[in-house]
């Protein structure tokens, strides 16, 4: 199948998908470009037609990951019946992406690549964050201007909380023994945070 993909001119994407599997198996630093080439049945030199090196391949995987991640967050935002349910739903979409697209998630957040050094990657990451900011702005509409927290700050806090839940409570991490599921942990943490900001008062 890999050779068929290559002969149809899809070597670039075939390398991305093969590398995602290698990341899941070996981690973001545990594979070589030659291994990715071998996985799709091409010579060790063939990947260099599309990528200058391993880091550029990782950046492309991260870019594609952020694009899908942003789409999932946007879908969760649209599905929310209220600003609060949308905000909570986006948190669950975050966990779902981390679990279902593990190789992409690792490339995005655990590979050590520089997002700022790649304009396409930066735009994709900014789009994902922008969706969270938009959701926070909708959620804060009822708060008077004088007491309204910055939406960007709230988006970053929830992003950090979501990432922390993934890192501590999934993939066999230490918190995985907790009787509370990652989904419940994130939702309860988000609600506590929002109560502290005065968004939820009942």
UniProtKB/TrEMBL annotation:
> DNA binding happens at which residues?
32-51
TM ranges are none
Report what the protein is called: TetR family transcriptional regulator
In its UniProt entry, the species of origin is given as Paracoccus litorisediminis
Q: Which PANTHER family match?
A: HTH-TYPE TRANSCRIPTIONAL REGULATOR RUTR, TETR-FAMILY REGULATORY PROTEIN
Top-rank taxon = Bacteria
Pfam families hit by this protein: TetR_C_33, TetR_N
Do you know which PROSITE patterns this protein is assigned to? Answer: HTH_TETR_2
Q: Which UniProt keywords apply?
A: DNA-binding, Transcription, Transcription regulation
Q: Which GO terms describe its molecular function?
A: DNA-binding transcription factor activity; transcription cis-regulatory region binding
> Which residue numbers delimit the HTH tetR-type domain?
9-69
């Amino acid at each position: 199948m890999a050779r068929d993909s290559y002969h149809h001119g899809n070597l670039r994407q075939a390398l991305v998908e093969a590398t995602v599997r290698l990341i899941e198996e070996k981690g973001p630093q545990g594979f070589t470009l030659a291994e990715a080439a071998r996985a799709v049945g091409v010579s060790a030199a063939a990947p260099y037609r599309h990528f200058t090196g391993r880091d550029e391949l990782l950046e492309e995987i991260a870019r594609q990951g952020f694009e899908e991640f942003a789409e999932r967050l946007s879908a969760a935002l649209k599905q929310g019946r209220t600003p609060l349910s949308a905000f909570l739903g986006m948190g669950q979409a975050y966990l779902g992406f981390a679990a279902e697209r593990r190789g992409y998630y690792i490339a995005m957040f655990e590979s050590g690549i520089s997002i700022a050094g790649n304009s396409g990657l930066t735009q994709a990451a900014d789009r994902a964050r922008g969706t969270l900011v938009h959701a926070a702005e909708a959620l804060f509409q009822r708060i008077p201007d004088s007491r309204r927290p910055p939406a960007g700050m709230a988006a970053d806090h929830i992003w950090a909380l979501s990432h922390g839940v993934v890192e501590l409570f999934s993939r066999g991490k230490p918190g995985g023994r907790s009787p509370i599921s990652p989904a419940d942990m994130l939702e309860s943490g988000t609600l506590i945070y929002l109560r502290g900001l005065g968004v939820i008062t009942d």
